[in-house]
Structure formats: C-alpha cells, structure tokens
Amino acid sequence: MARNYTSHQEWFEDDPVGYLKAQQDSILNAMNAFAQQQAQAAQMQQLQAQVARQAKQFAAQRPDYADALKHVVDGRRKEYKAFGLTDEQLDAALESEVGGLIRAEVAAGRNPAETMYTYAKSRGFESAPSNILSEISDEDLDKAFDDMRKADGIADGPFSEPIFEEE
Fold it and tell me: What is the pLDDT of residue 45?
C-alpha cells in the first residue's frame, strides 16, 4: 500500500529502495520525453525545409506567388479582426491554420505553395498581367505600329520612324 509522504527525506528514510526506483523511473520518463521532443523537432525541421524548397521552386514558376500569399494572409487577417481577435490571437490562429494546411498538403503529397496559390485565386487574387510586349519581337512591334500609323493616316508624321532601331 502506497503511503503519502510529506517530504522526500521522509520517503527515503522509510523506503530507500522504493524512493530510488521512483526517482530512476522519473529520470527515465524525462529522458524519453526529451528524446521524443528532439525527434519531433527534427521532423519539423525536415518538413519546414521541404516546404521551403517547394515554395521556392513554385515561386520560380510563379513570380507573383509572394503577392498571392500576401493576398490570402491579408484577407484572413481582416476576417479574424472582424471577429474581434487581438493581434496575438490573430497571429496564433493564422499560424495554426497555415500549419494545418501545410501538414495536410504534405501528407496528401501535394505542394502547399501551389495549393495556397490556387486558394488565393479562388479568393479574388489576380495574377499580374504578363508583359506581352516582351514576348513580341522588335520587328513585329515595328510592323504593328506601322500598320497603326497607316490606319490613322500618320505614316509621314513625327512617329513615322521605327520604334526599335537595329543594333
């Protein structure tokens, strides 16, 4: 039958073997808990590194990814503010929400960055229009402007010279 001791000294004096065994068990439990925490921290670091790599790769394909992410976070902040959350509560809620999304996407084998980008678009984010002029050759641009000038009757005016000069 276990006794309730009022001090460690009293316990040790009454049952030194039981006391030392309990202390040993306590130390072993603490060591096991610490080892589990270390393993979880290592897994979290691996997950963070994986997600960071995926986000970087996705951002290379979608230069507006950071803007999309900001769009989502800003929108969620406004929503949480409307519920009256403090900044501290808001940050904790966002961290929890994003963490849950990341874990779910990684577990499903999907790229969290890609999912967040798709989510941003569903919440009204619009990609910046690409610079279409960079995709058209100088010669094609000159021809298009020549055609426009001719159509407007200004073929011999101040804008009659080609816009892009050959180098």
Answer: 87
